[in-house]
Amino acid sequence: MNPIFAQTSTSVFETMSRMARQFDAVNLGQGFPDDPGPLDVRRQAADAVVNGWNQYPPMMGIPELRQAIARHYKRFHHLDLDWETEVMVTSGATEALAGALLALIEPGDEVVLFQPMYDAYLPLVKRAGGIPRFVTLRPPHWGIDEAQLKAVFNAKTKVVLLNHPLNPSGSVFSPADLDLLASYIVQHDAILVCDEVWEHVLFYNVEFRPTLTIPSLRRKTLKIGSAGKIFSLTGWKVGFVCAAPEILKVVAKAHQYITFTTPPNLQAAVAYGLDKSDDYFTGMRRDFQEAQDRFADGLTKLGFHVIPSNATYFLNVDLTKGRFAGMDDNAFAKLLVEEARVASIPVSAFYAEDAVTSVVRFCFAKKFETLDEALRRIKQLC
Ligand code: PMP
Ligand code: GLN
């Protein structure tokens, strides 16, 4: 067996969801909304299944979706993407990540990773033969420290893998942090793989700037997106990559041997959805923000120290202060699921070394009843 997978533990999301089922807990661990997702988008998919094409679609994705992706980023970020040479559909952001890392990394290349990092990153980087170099981000600001960039970038740096906005912190990198990072990427002639799946799930009027819009990174960045997050349909696994033709054509070679393609009916529905009016996107943010405010207020009233979230479905509780101060995140998450029957995610699971062990993540993308029930159970434990 390959030790990278043989020695990797089951994903923290699966582990916590299993525990949630075992203890009949309210599951605020793995990030998925209670809401079934926009009905019109789901109807489009159903119609495409019944009346549409159900055989292999083109390897790069159906033209309607690739065109819709290009239009979408023109509308939101004034990006000019050539849908034929700069846009490819993948089976979720996860496949896009796997394809990008396999296509870009040669054994022995160094890859800069920012921890906390999404759980798939490290095994995929290692399996592609990359040598991970970590930059550690810390609460409450989760900003980039230049001394760490200086320490990890060198002549062997090939790829930088960034998640922006960042899961699990719920933070958005500042323009100053992105410009700083861009200068290191350009100086070391590296390629940025930027996982922007949370690009639309933003709060408190925070500005999100895709890294592809930074002029010096336009030809050095591969942007990854996911319809799962844009439409709160996490099980759909329709993702995409946007990059300059010279990068995309190589990543397409990896994609053709991983999944080759993605269900055509779901692609058709996502193409329809990306053209939805601005009201859909602002409405989604407003609803999630209300849920976040309600849950954060409830936790604050119970004496927890909440780190507010500017993006994603997640907020964090800081265990260095307030209720249960001093408890380690794993112990707290275990206590919470076993005794209060509320599942969360210990954030130390997102670190490979030198972990922050005082932060626990909660998914607030839930109905008010679900959040209120979780608060009631946590109150009893308190
Ligand atoms: N990257 C990040 C940062 C994520 O949070 C997720 C899932 N929530 C993914 C990738 C996976 O996206 P997909 O389901 O489209 O594969
Ligand atoms: N991205 C989701 C989260 O952060 C989980 C995805 C998964 O279960 N692999 O909760």
The CATH topology annotation of the largest domain reads as Aspartate Aminotransferase, domain 2
> How far apart are the first and last residues' alpha carbons, in Å?
45 Å
Give the overall average pLDDT. Answer: 97
Can you tell me the residue ranges where pLDDT is under 50 for at least 5 consecutive residues?
none
User: How large, in whole angstroms, is the Cα Rg?
Assistant: 20 Å
Q: How many individual helices?
A: 15
* Domain module tally: 2
Helix content: 40-55%
**In CATH's first tier, which class of the largest domain applies?**
Alpha Beta
Question: Could you explain how this protein is built, in words?
Answer:
With 382 residues, the protein is an alpha/beta fold. The chain folds into 2 domains: 131 residues, Aspartate Aminotransferase, domain 1 (Alpha-Beta Complex), CATH 3.90.1150; 238 residues, Aspartate Aminotransferase, domain 2, CATH 3.40.640. The longest helix is centred in the C-terminal third of the chain and has 24 residues. It starts with a helix and ends with a helix. The relative contact order is 0.18. The structure holds 4'-deoxy-4'-aminopyridoxal-5'-phosphate and glutamine. The site of glutamine (GLN) has 5 residues, from loops.
